[in-house]
C-alpha cells in the first residue's frame, strides 16, 4: 500500500521552508555590524601587511601601461574655490552636453559645471576629457592650491590629497605586496616613480609623438561627493566621483615601444632567474590603462595605429608561454572599444573589469 505524507507533514515542511527563507532576511536587516569600523579595520590590516619571506622568487609579472597623478578633492568645496556657486542657476534643456554614457566635449567652465550637475543628479561616475588646455591648467593650479602639502603624495588629508594613480601602477603595487616580481611599463615623472614600492622596476619608453624627453605627469582631478550632498537644489542619490582629465601620454599609449621586450631582458625584474631559461620569461603580462585612450581628443588621432602596435606586441613579441590579462575598466566610446576588443581579445587569456564607484 502506497504511503502518502500526512497533512501535518505538509504543514511542518511549509513552516520549515518559510523559516529558512525568513531567518537570513531577518539577520541581514537586524545586523549590528558597524560597516565603517569594518572598513577601517581592513585599511589597518592593509597598511600593516608584510609578505612572508619567500624561499624562491615570486612569479614574474609585467604590468602596463602608463600612470597618472590623482588630485582628490571634495567636489563641492572645489567648485566654490573656483567661483562656482552651489546655489547658482541650473542648466538649460538646450545644453549640448550628453548623458553619462555619451561622448562629451568640455571647452568652458560652464560646460564642466553643467555636465557635473547632470552626473550629480544621476549619482553617476564619470571621467571626462577637457579639450581646453588653458582651462584644464587653471583647474589643476586651483586644485593644487587647495592641498595642504602639494609637494608630497599623501594617503589622506583634510582638504584633499595627491597620489599616484592609474590602473597599471595600482595593480603593480598590489602584485608586489603579494610577493610577485613586478616590472611596470610606464613613462612616469620622477615624483610618480618615487611613489612606487622599491621592489617595482619601471621600464620607461623613449620620448615619441612630440612628448618631452622627461615625462610630465598626466593629472586627473578626482572630484568626490557624498550621498546626501546638496548641489543647486539637487541631492546626490549616492556617493560618487567626477573625474576631469587631459592626458597627453596615456591616450597615445606612449609606454609601448618596439624595444620593450629587449629592455625587459636588460633591466626588468627577473627575480634572480637567468635569461635564456624559459623560466625567465614573464609569467604574466597585465594590460591596463587603455581606458585613457577612450574619448580622448588628440591630434592627430593615432589611436588606431597604437592599438595595431599593441596587437603586434601581444601576438609576435611577447613570449608564447606568457599569459595575458586584460583589465578593461570602463569605456563609453562604442567604436573604440569594439575595435580594441577585436584587436586584442584573441591574444588574451583572462579579462577583468575595474568597476566605477557605485
Protein described:
The chain has helices spanning 7-29, 35-48, 75-81, 109-122, 133-146, 167-177, 190-194, 260-267, 303-317, 334-344, and strands at 60-64, 68-74, 126-129, 160-165, 181-185, 201-203, 219-225, 230-231, 234-235, 240-245, 284-287, 323-327, 350-352. It has 358 residues and is of the alpha/beta class. It has one domain (55-353): Adenosine kinase, small domain (2-Layer Sandwich), CATH 3.30.1110.20. The longest helix has 23 residues, at 7-29.
What topology emerges from the helices and strands here?
Blueprint: H1 7-29, H2 35-48, E1 60-64, E2 68-74, H3 75-81, H4 109-122, E3 126-129, H5 133-146, E4 160-165, H6 167-177, E5 181-185, H7 190-194, E6 201-203, E7 219-225, E8 230-231, E9 234-235, E10 240-245, H8 260-267, E11 284-287, H9 303-317, E12 323-327, H10 334-344, E13 350-352
Parallel strand pairs: 1-5, 1-11, 2-7, 3-10, 5-6, 11-12, 12-13
Antiparallel strand pairs: 2-4, 7-10, 8-9
Helix count equals 10
- Helix/strand order: HHEEHHEHEHEHEEEEEHEHEHE
Name of the CATH architecture: 2-Layer Sandwich
Q: Per CATH, what is the topology?
A: Adenosine kinase, small domain
Q: Record the strand order, biggest sheet.
A: 6-5-1-11-12-13
The share of residues in helices is 25-40%
Q: Which stretches are poorly predicted, pLDDT < 50 over at least 5 residues?
A: 92-101
Shape: globular
Major beta sheet summary: 6 strands, parallel
Give me the secondary-structure category. alpha/beta
Tally of domains: 1
Amino acid at each position: 500500500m502506497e504511503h502518502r505524507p500526512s497533512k501535518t507533514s505538509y504543514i511542518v515542511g511549509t513552516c520549515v521552508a518559510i523559516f529558512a527563507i525568513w531567518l537570513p532576511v531577518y539577520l541581514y536587516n537586524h545586523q549590528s555590524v558597524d560597516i565603517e569600523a569594518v572598513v577601517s579595520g581592513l585599511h589597518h590590516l592593509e597598511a600593516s601587511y608584510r609578505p612572508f619571506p619567500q624561499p624562491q622568487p615570486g612569479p614574474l609579472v609585467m604590468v602596463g601601461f602608463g600612470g597618472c597623478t590623482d588630485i582628490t578633492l571634495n567636489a563641492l568645496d572645489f567648485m566654490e574655490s573656483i567661483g562656482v556657486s552651489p546655489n547658482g542657476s541650473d542648466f538649460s534643456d538646450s545644453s549640448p552636453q550628453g548623458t553619462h554614457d555619451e561622448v562629451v566635449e568640455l571647452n568652458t567652465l560652464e560646460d564642466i559645471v553643467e555636465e557635473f550637475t547632470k552626473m550629480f543628479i544621476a549619482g553617476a561616475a564619470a571621467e571626462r576629457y577637457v579639450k581646453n588646455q588653458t582651462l584644464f591648467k587653471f583647474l589643476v593650479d586651483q586644485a593644487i592650491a587647495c592641498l595642504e602639502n602639494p609637494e608630497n603624495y599623501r594617503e589622506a588629508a583634510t582638504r584633499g590629497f595627491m597620489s599616484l594613480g592609474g590602473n597599471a601602477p595600482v595593480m603593480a603595487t598590489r602584485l608586489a605586496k603579494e610577493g610577485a616580481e613586478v616590472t611596470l611599463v610606464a613613462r612616469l615623472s620622477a615624483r610618480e616613480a618615487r611613489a612606487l614600492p622599491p621592489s617595482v622596476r619601471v621600464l620607461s619608453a623613449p620620448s615619441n609623438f612630440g612628448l618631452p624627453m622627461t615625462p610630465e605627469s598626466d593629472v586627473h582631478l578626482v572630484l568626490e561627493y557624498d550621498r546626501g550632498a546638496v548641489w543647486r537644489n539637487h541631492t546626490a542619490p549616492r556617493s560618487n566621483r567626477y573625474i576631469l582629465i587631459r592626458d597627453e601620454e596615456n591616450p597615445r599609449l606612449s609606454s609601448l615601444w618596439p624595444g620593450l621586450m629587449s629592455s625587459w631582458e636588460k633591466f626588468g625584474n627577473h627575480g634572480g632567474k637567468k635569461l635564456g631559461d624559459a623560466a625567465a620569461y614573464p609569467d604574466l603580462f597585465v594590460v591596463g590603462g587603455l581606458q585613457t585612450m577612450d574619448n580622448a581628443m588628440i591630434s592627430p588621432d593615432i589611436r588606431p595605429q597604437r592599438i595595431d602596435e599593441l596587437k603586434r606586441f601581444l601576438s609576435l613579441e611577447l613570449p608564447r608561454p606568457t599569459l595575458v590579462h586584460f583589465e578593461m575598466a570602463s569605456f563609453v566610446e562604442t567604436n573604440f572599444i569594439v575595435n580594441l576588443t577585436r584587436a586584442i581579445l584573441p591574444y588574451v587569456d583572462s579579462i577583468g573589469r575595474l568597476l566605477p564607484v557605485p
